[in-house]
Amino acid sequence: MRLASIVPGAFAEHVLTEEDDYHLLIAPEVIDNQPYREFYRGRGTSGDFIILDNGAYEVHAYEEEVDLSPTALEAAVDALGFLPSEIVLPDVPGSAHETLLRSTKAAYYLRERWRYSVFMVVPHGTTLEEYLACAQYMVELPGLQSFGVSFIAADAIGISREELVKRLLESIRKIDPDIHLLGYRDPVPPETKDVCRGIDTAKHVRMAIEGFFLDKADPVIKCGPRPSDFFRNDNLNPELMDAVAQNITIFREHLA
């Protein structure tokens, strides 16, 4: 399973190596954060796998004001200067109906602009049945390549994310999509790793910033909430850069 380490823009060139070739970018940061945008523009044009996320998690978890419209995603792609490997279509945690409306509108809008754009969809629902129905409708969207599975969706239904991945794959078996785990909270069981393409997190980076180092034998991730200025952190102290790079390497190897 591949790891997309979420890092501040100023950190990226100091802590990510050639082995870190799987990335998840936040659309508002692409537009507003020049060091962040410039680094990933270089990585994307060099062939790294770039997922452009819509920012719905930031709205839900941090109550940030984020534009989730198709035109906002379009502006982020224009700012990057290349078409990402995947674009995460807009989703609305807790609402299958709103998620379907926004994802459908964005898929057709973006496909009209970029004929070969491909998408990650993120189903939601208040019950397992509603969630799976949302996912099955999404199968018909143009450009579908993967499903993103979040803790937010699993918690809303009241089951583990591992069980949700299993039930999702059973429900949409006919198309055999990629699965990406949105965010990290608990250790990922081997049977879930085996069916997932990747996962993203900033927690191992935040741990290093807070002065904690991962144990290579048992990398347990614990840290506080992501600070609001996380992406603008420009403390390039060499010891901090070494600590962040070390945590990234240990966690990447742990998930492989």
Give an account of the 3D structure:
The chain is of the alpha/beta class and 256 residues long. The chain has a single domain (2-255), classed as TIM Barrel (Alpha-Beta Barrel), CATH 3.20.20. Helix content is 45%, strand content 14%. It has an 8-stranded parallel sheet. It is globular, with a radius of gyration of 17 Å. The termini are close together.
Structure described in brief:
The chain has helices at residues 12-15, 27-32, 34-45, 56-62, 70-80, 96-113, 128-138, 151-157, 161-171, 190-193, 203-209, 238-255; strands spanning 2-5, 22-26, 49-53, 86-88, 119-121, 144-150, 178-182, 198-201. The protein is α/β, with parallel strands linked by helices and 256 residues long.
The whole-angstrom Rg is 17 Å
Determine the N-to-C terminus distance: 5 Å
Instruction: Give me the count of strands.
Output: 8
Widest sheet: strand ordering: 1-8-7-6-5-4-3-2
List the helices and strands and how they pair.
Blueprint: E1 2-5, H1 12-15, E2 22-26, H2 27-32, H3 34-45, E3 49-53, H4 56-62, H5 70-80, E4 86-88, H6 96-113, E5 119-121, H7 128-138, E6 144-150, H8 151-157, H9 161-171, E7 178-182, H10 190-193, E8 198-201, H11 203-209, H12 238-255
Parallel strand pairs: 1-8, 2-3, 3-4, 4-5, 5-6, 6-7, 7-8
Helix pairs in contact: 5-6, 6-7, 7-9, 11-12
